[in-house]
Structures are given as C-alpha cells and as structure tokens.
Amino acid sequence: MGFPKGFLWGGATAANQYEGGWDAGGRGPANSDVITNGDPKNGRMATRRLADGTVETVTAMRPDPLPDGAVYDTAPGHYYPSHQATDFYHHFREDIALMGELGLKTYRMSISWSRIYPTGLEETPNEEGLAFYDAVFDELHKYGIEPMVTLHHFEVPLALSNAFGAWQDRRMVELFLKFCETVFRRYRDKVRYWLTFNEINNLPFGFLASGMTRFDPQALAQAAHHQFVASANAVRLGHQINPDFRIGCMLAASRVTVYPKTCAPEDVQAAWEAACRNYFYADVQCRGFYPSYQLQYYKRQGIQVQMEPEDAQILRDGCVDFISISYYRSTLAARQQGKQSGDPLNLGEPNPYLPCTEWGITIDPLGFRIVLHNLYDRYGLPIMVVENGLGAVDTVAEDGKVHDPYRIDFYRTHIRAMKDAIELDGVDVMGYTPWGWIDIVSAGTGEMRKRYGFVYVDMDDTGHGTLARSRKDSFAWYKKVIASNGEDLD
Ligand code: BG6
User: Fold this and answer.
1) Active-site annotation holds for 273
2) Degrees to nearest 5, angle at CA 163 with 161 and 165
C-alpha cells in the first residue's frame, strides 16, 4: 500500500530563522530580531541577551516582566542571528531551484508579519513586502511546488510587544486578522494551505515564541485564548475568501508523546496530565470548545480567562481543516515532589531505552508512530507532519562534502514509522516536510552548528561565512525517497 498518491513530500523553514533581510524592503523589526545568539545551558535551552534601554541580559524564554518604560531593542556589539539568518531573502531563487532539484512537492514557510505590517499598526500594508512573497510563490509554482504558509511562526512585530506585550492583550486578535485578510486576499490564487499558529502549545516559550512580556500562568492562559480566537477568526475568514483554502493548526506533538517513567499509576497519571496540558490547545482548535479537564485545571489554579460573549461561537465556527504537527522526541513524566508535570521548559529525564542527540533530544521513531495514531484517533482529521528532523553538528570533509549518514538514519527510521502509522494503523497522513531542509539558525539556541539540512550553508555561529549552499549526502537520499514516493528508503 505505501504512501498515498499525491503525498506531500516537502521541506520546512520559518522566516525568523531563514529569511534574513530584517531591515530590507521596508520590513519592521520583530521580537526575534532583538534576541542575540546564546550560550546553550547544559546543551539545552539557551540564554539569550535581549537589550532594553539599559542593555540588560535576560533570557528570551521567560524574562522577568518588562519594567515600566523599558522596551526591547537591539544594542550595539551583539550578534542577532535573525538579521541575516541564512539569507533566503537574497538567495530565494537559488534555494527554490534546489527545492526543485530535490523534487519537493510542497514547501512550508512562514510570512514575516512585520514585513507586511512593519509595526502591526499601519492601515495599509507594505507593498514591497507583499511583492517579495509574490516573487517567492511565483518561483515555487515554476517548479510545481505548493506553498504551505504559517501565519505566525514565533514572530510578531516588535512594536506590539513593546506597546502592550503582544498576545497577552486582546488587541492582537484584530491586528492579526487584518494581517491575515491582507495575505489571504493577496495570495488567494497562489497559496492553498495555511497554518495559523506554529506550535501553539509552545506559547509558554515566552518572548521568543509569542512576543509576550509577562509569563505568569494567568497571562499565558489569556494569551492562549487570544490565539484561539485569532486562529478561529482566520479559519472563518480564509474560507470566505477562498473556499478551497485548507487551514490547519499546528501542535508540538513531542509534548503529547509523554511516557510514564514507571508503571506506577501515579507516574501514568503524571504522563497523562503532562500530555493534557498540551492536547488542550489542539482540542480547542479541532473541536471548537475548551475541554472540561482544562476548565477544571484553570479553576484549580485560580486562573480566570476573560472571554467575550461572541468567543464561544467564533471557536465553534473556526475549527481547522487538518492538524499539523512537529515531532522531534518523546519525554518521560513521573509524579515527583516539587516537579511540575508538563512544564514546557523541561525536557524531562532521559529515557534509558533511547539514544539522545547532542542537545539532549531523545530519538524515538516509534513514538512518532504512536503519536500519529493517537492524534488521528482523537480528532479524525488528516495530519500533516510539518516538522521532524535531527539537529546535528556537520563537518565538511576533506573532499569538501558533508557526509551525514546519521541524518539519513534518523529520517529512514522516522519515515518507516510514519509508513507504519499509515499502513498498519490507518492514519491519514497528508504529507511530510522535514524541518530545516536547508541549514537555518536554531530557534532554541540561536546556534548555526545545530544543523538540520539536506543542504549545507557555509556560515558559523556568529554569522561569518560565504553563505554558499552545497548538497550533503542526505540530499541525494531524500531525493530518491521522494522520487519513489517513500518506497526506496535504503
Ligand atoms: C520547533 C520550532 O520547536 O523546533 C522551530 O517550530 C525550531 O522553529 C525547531 O527551529 C527545532 O528547534 P531548534 O531549537 O533546534 O531550532
């Protein structure tokens, strides 16, 4: 049986990590543009330096609330990886030609909101920004590649963070809809697949993921609600503008792939609870209402989400057409004193049965099959895998090439697991877009040496290098996989 005909083999990136051209073509600064590269702590989450008026060093994940009168800004003497990133802005024709050579059927990318509305507050969009994406979509179609566009991938106009802490404020709902309406109308006939919020359950990644400036549970719950309403509004409007649009949500599925550390029922419950703190985001977007377990959880935590009278209807009418996911790993949970289950910033304990990457990420292909099966049973919606991949250090060998059998192994085992989910479990998987099909900067650490791509980009952790593109061994391998529709994985 194998992969269905028309399976969407592709590649994925996001503007904040790939596009660069941060101040070109009238673009305004985004939250990502004031985040410096950081020193990875324990090989895990990085501490980044953000600059406010006094050039303080704070973490990009969960900085303290912004003091009165302070703003986030760039500061001289620091390196900001998003400014150049790996410069899709100036290389897009060359890069899309490589996508064509690879045989991609789809390319998942994000539109940078501040390229279209530099502060988010303008009445009219930035024409130069719109024209840039026109050129990108036209180029993709030249090679028969279907764009799949994320509307919000860890990026908001910086002005909105500084003005009112972005998603913690209800004003974001209308501003986001204005942005969506502009791009939906403009690209009505060029883009069919849209995703609303990248890894919506990673909202607690604070300033980095959502541009928020407060991180208490109340602010996070309120911000999640604003994103739910914004997502549902976008789905409704998108379908009005073009009934052929297919609009999905996006869940970090690693966070619902939680195993109990032991078979003690307390550990099983801890694992289930940790997963529920994440499932609930997709529950709202796929089912159109808050699950009762989450409402009870909020009650127990003393959290009161302010909802407007029209919100319930908006959520009901704005259910997504499909669910998209990222999957990198599984985690362990145990009921332990003082440990908060489901803490999004916690990678959990290592699983003794599984290998780990250099960054402490478990490698668990079977977990991939399990979560695909779970999500399909839960929602009955087609699943698009829009992120999966291995962050690894690549070295250029004496022959000038990158030989990356470890990456091929990772993809081989994960693609097999996905095939099993389709063939053995009957899951409806629409497609698969490996993360960072070309090297881009890491979202979690700002590093360049944590590479995911089939294409190597000559650039180091401080942005130095020629930016020349070259094919790794995995490039030819993935090309063969696509050409055989997933049959030839050797
Ligand atoms: C996902 C994000 O969380 O994981 C991407 O959607 C990110 O933006 C990817 O790049 C991999 O994480 P990292 O930290 O290795 O870049």
Assistant:
1) no
2) 40
